[in-house]
Amino acid sequence: MNHDREHLRLLSIFHYVVAGFAAMFACLPLVHLAIGLAFLSGKIEGTQGPDDGGRLVGGVLVALASVFLLLGWTLVALLVLAGRSLARHRRYTFCLVMAAISCAFMPFGTVLGVFTLIVLLRPGVKELFGVGVAPLEGL
Half-sphere exposure (CA, 13 Å, Cβ side) for 66? Predict the structure, then answer.
């Protein structure tokens, strides 16, 4: 049981580390957002004319960058919440789902997700989370 607690503590820390890497990558669309806003405001030379596609390009860049920023920062927040949940032995299903989702964030998320899945599927860890344990009656 001590090994399970230690592994969950380490996985929690590694979730925070991967969330930090994900946060760095989630900031990359800020460049596209800035370029799109420059297109929309006409600050880039040759994009002020009515026949120019600068406004269309700027709008597409702003829209796509906004979506990717939202998705990236949502992933970061969910990874942090999963790390916190692992440390507190709460939200077993959520941690399991986040382990599977983090596998898509290569290479660090893949390693973290696989190890998290391996640890979470142990009977001792399920017991720590209270999964499969009958609730106490009369409380």
Answer: 8
